[in-house]
């Protein structure tokens, strides 16, 4: 089955993480590939629990957090290279036969933002072993991309404290 958690609201990655934890609790073999989340200055706190559960994860992406706590927008060639490396890792995991569930976090955002071409992503997804449950998350520029998915959930922002200037907080946003 293919799942997509899309939209501009907060909670897509958190929902995917929850499913990964649930699967681990049920004895399923899961893994996660995190796209566009590489960072040298902090570790995403969800990786701590994944390590404790023995769930493998792979983080790809260039530094986006600035020294002053800001965020670097835009796309560089290095960003694209990192996304390609993540896609290759996803392909290896999807075709290995070793996993029941694979989370591809922010892969839809990478396709929407030009770090990956959707046709490349689609080609990799098509190679997956038939028993693998695949979860793709992110903002989705073209919903036709997920038309053939078995489950699509839209997370819509109604209001967000970031709009009032609240900054990202450890344990809540990362």
UniProtKB/TrEMBL annotation:
GO terms for biological process: cobalamin biosynthetic process. InterPro entries: CblAdoTrfase_CobA, P-loop_NTPase. The keyword Transferase applies. Gene3D superfamilies: P-loop containing nucleotide triphosphate hydrolases. SUPFAM superfamilies: P-loop containing nucleoside triphosphate hydrolases (SSF52540). Keywords: Transferase. GO terms for molecular function: ATP binding; corrinoid adenosyltransferase activity. Coiled coil: none annotated. It comes from the Bacteria. The keyword Transferase applies. This is Cob(I)alamin adenosyltransferase. It comes from Candidatus Ozemobacter sibiricus.
